[in-house]
Amino acid sequence: MLDEVKGFWVTFRRLFTPNVTIQYPEEKRQMAPRFRGLPSLRADPETGEPLCVACGLCARICPTSCLEMTVVPSEEGDRELAEFILRSGRCLFCGMCAQVCPVDAITMSGEYELATLQRDGLIYTKTELAAIGAQNLGWWDADTQDAR
Ligand code: SF4
Ligand code: SF4
């Protein structure tokens, strides 16, 4: 009998404590600064130009080879990034691509809603990654450098 009373008491006490759950997806939690969501591309906030210098280090270090890029000669005779593909179905969210990038052009965004019914939906292009990068400040953003 005592055990039943104890059980009811635990339930009764919970009626007067604040909720810890939220109404997802209407409500969303702020992700921790070091949360590693989808890798995304960053652009110069003043010019809007992608920061990527097409060095290929991120693709080379990626343990699952899920990054792919097309590099073309630029008008100045330098290298220019034509396309940047991320196959997110293979991504481990390890963050090695962001760590190795010499110009902080690729960052781990806070994006985690990646479910899709189409396999093609797992493939992100340069434009899509740049759009996510513009919305989600990652580890490497100047404001969150201390979160490295
Ligand atoms: S987070 Fe890791 S697995 Fe994903 S693209 Fe970057 S290096 Fe590759
Ligand atoms: S490491 Fe950085 S600069 Fe080099 S290709 Fe990847 S995103 Fe671009």
UniProtKB/TrEMBL annotation:
Highest taxon listed in the record's lineage: Bacteria
EC number: 7.1.1.-
Domain spans labelled 4Fe-4S ferredoxin-type: 43-72, 82-111
Enzyme class: translocase
Major site of localization recorded for this protein: membrane
GO molecular function, one term: iron ion binding
KW Membrane (keyword) present: yes
Catalytic activity: a quinone + NADH + 5 H(+)(in) = a quinol + NAD(+) + 4 H(+)(out)
Family that this chain belongs to: Belongs to the complex I 23 kDa subunit family.
Name the UniProt record assigns to this protein: NADH-quinone oxidoreductase subunit I
